[in-house]
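Practice problem: Secreted protein
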Amino acid sequence: MPLHVPPAPAPALRSVLTALGSPTAVREARTPSLRAAPGPVTPDLPLPVHVLERNTTAGATTRLAGWRFLIRSGDRAVAAAETMLTPDGWAFSHFFEGPYIASTEIALRQAEAVGQPFQPRLLSVPELYMLTLWLHGDCAADGAGGAPLATDLLVPLAPAPPGIAAYRPYRAAELLPVLNLRATPAPLLGPSDPVGPAHADSPAA
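Answer key — structure tokens:
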């Protein structure tokens, strides 16, 4: 079942095309693979990047941070381009490369094989240095808005945090509570209890 990729804002796409057409922008990018790519490169598979802002038992909220385009040379992605919303509209931000480029492609190919239609997005969890492919069940939704539905799938991209399997599809209702626990700082011990509960059971001197 094909994925329903949401259309990116036209100004965002134009800003990426302009950057790709600028020898200075490409030459100064910290992306050796992009600079060394043979032949023409093209932006592909625009995905909205959402940031997980609040994640509680009452629900999760997200904020649209930008649109990300994979930059393809031939049959492989060599980099990605990030765009951001400015007071004047969508603008090119930067090129980058790294492990999330390949892992995004792997997760998208796996999602294509799922027998249920989804709208692909990216969901970032900054507190855990984590990025997931967010497979939204409402294919007609505006890709720029909304929060994860309980039945949406979240696919952690590699590298994933310890104890969370990369490329495994998790129901949002299953994974979000785990992420909430991981992102919540452990309570500090008070000055009157320096070594925790075991201190009360220690033998007297």
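Discussion: DSSP finds five helices and eight strands in the chain. Students who identified this feature from the tokens alone can consider the problem solved.
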